[in-house]
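Sequence, please.
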């Protein structure tokens, strides 16, 4: 079974970050694009493995790219940006990318080592 989640990728003055809005708490950072891709892969895999091990239902991928843009803009409200500008005199975000990420999830509810969730592909749509 494959699930496709929207992922928000952010480039700022410190490097890359990523989060999955449909999977609260699933965030990652990296110094380079490649490192961040590897780290968000590990973060999403680890998170979904934990959900399955706990016997909880997997978070349903609901958010479209447009919904993720609105969510992201809402999350970076003026009260978040203002302190950053006072400290760094730079905008907090250099660039933001919104992409779908497909992850393969075991068909059964049990998690065997060979059935751990893994990214099938990372692609922009």
């Amino acid at each position: 079974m494959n699930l496709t989640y929207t992922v928000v990728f952010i480039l700022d003055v410190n490097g890359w970050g990523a989060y999955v809005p449909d999977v609260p708490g699933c965030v990652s950072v990296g110094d380079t694009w490649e490192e961040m891709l590897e780290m968000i892969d590990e973060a999403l895999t680890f998170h979904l493995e934990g959900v399955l091990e706990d016997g909880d239902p997997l978070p349903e991928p609901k958010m479209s790219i447009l919904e993720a843009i609105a969510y992201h803009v809402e999350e970076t409200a003026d009260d978040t940006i203002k302190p950053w500008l006072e400290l760094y005199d730079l905008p907090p975000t250099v660039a933001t990318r919104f992409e779908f990420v497909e992850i393969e999830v075991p068909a059964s509810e049990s998690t065997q080592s060979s059935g751990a969730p893994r990214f099938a592909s990372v692609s922009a749509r």
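The beta strands are 2-12, 15-19, 27-30, 95-104, 118-123.
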